[in-house]
Amino acid sequence: MESASAPARLRALPSWLLNQSARPAQHLVSEGLRAVGAQRYHYSVLAALDEFGPASQAALGRRSGIDRSDMVAVVNDLTAQGSVSRQPDATDRRRNVVTITPAGHRHLQALDDIVNGAQRDLLAPLSTDERAELVRLLGKIVDHHAGG
């Protein structure tokens, strides 16, 4: 359904509007990352490591919203490209600690540029103030529902 021709009662629903805006958002980000051989999961893991420091694969999965079954493949990808290192935890040999490498920091900066470009494209019809307000309001919704 083309959103401009959607019934007014749908266009008045925040849930419908969020869903409709999520489609181009995901497309823009995914296509930008795919162009350089990256995935959204790669970006999420590198961002979590950059912000919070070394972590177990389980903690990384929780922080970045990646299922445990997918996390091994993501860490394998990032290890193969030299963006992270994975070492057994010194206190618990059953788990691995993942650390971002200097190459991973450089890769994350390049991915930041791509993701930020996708955000600019997505939010092109909004002013700078409107963009900031949208991010604030969406963050408020996400934070409210995060505990539930």
Question: How would you characterize this protein structure?
Answer:
The radius of gyration is 18 Å and the shape is elongated. Helices cover 67% and strands 8% of the residues. It has a domain of 86 residues: Arc Repressor Mutant, subunit A (Orthogonal Bundle), CATH 1.10.10.10. The protein is mostly helical. Helix 3 crosses helix 6 and helix 4 crosses helix 5. It has a 3-stranded antiparallel sheet with strand order 1-3-2. It contains 7 helices and 3 strands, in the order H-H-H-E-H-H-E-E-H-H. The chain starts with 7 loop residues before the first helix and ends with a helix. The mean pLDDT is 94. Strand 2 and strand 3 form a beta hairpin. The relative contact order is 0.11.
Q: Can you tag this structure with a few keywords?
A:
148 residues; mainly alpha; Arc Repressor Mutant, subunit A; three-stranded antiparallel beta sheet; 67% helix; 8% strand
Number of strands: 3
- Can you list the strand order of the major beta sheet? 1-3-2
CATH topology of the domain at 30-115: Arc Repressor Mutant, subunit A
Q: Which consecutive residue ranges, at least 5 long each, have pLDDT under 50?
A: none
Brief digest:
This protein is mainly alpha-helical. The protein has helices spanning 8-11, 14-34, 40-52, 57-64, 68-80, 102-122, 128-146, and strands at 55-56, 84-88, 96-100.
Secondary-structure map with pairings?
Blueprint: H1 8-11, H2 14-34, H3 40-52, E1 55-56, H4 57-64, H5 68-80, E2 84-88, E3 96-100, H6 102-122, H7 128-146
Antiparallel strand pairs: 1-3, 2-3
